[in-house]
Amino acid sequence: QPQQFRYDAFVAYSSNDEAWVSRVLSPELEDHHPQYRLCIGERDFVGGVPILQNIRDAVETSRKTVCIITRSFLRSNWCNFELQMSQGRYHLFDPRRVSLILIFLENIPDHVLERYPLLNNVVHRDTYLRWPNNQRRRPLFWARLRHALGAPLGNDIQMDEDIAEDEV
Questions:
Q1: Beta bridge partners of 100
Q2: Neighbouring residues of 144: CB distance < 8 A, sequence distance ≥ 6
Q3: pTM, whole model, 2 decimals?
């Protein structure tokens, strides 16, 4: 039985980049056609649940993980944990299916990336996107991101618990 997902993508980002996620990424993907369902920790994590469990749940209930790569992301232990969790999922499922999408908001030199072996491996293995400073290049960026995300989940999503209850 195929896995049911609640979200199209979990967005992993540093709290320093929250403004870009909430003012640029989220409105573009959630409010414009086609509409995606994003899991954004600030908004969607469950209060009272340990952060590690919230991260695990977000990764497991999302088809993809989008990591917003900045120097702040690289310095954050939580962001690195989110990347590791998503990386682990890559190997659990079909390794030909890319479930990790990297968006570089800043230019990170190669010599800096080399200090982060996990991220460096992903950059060399998978496609990644760079946020263009030039406004005219942004439509192509959004088109490429939507292509990487694939078709959005339908509106009739059921959670695993719903399916299990129906089977009883």
A1: 65
A2: 129
A3: 0.81
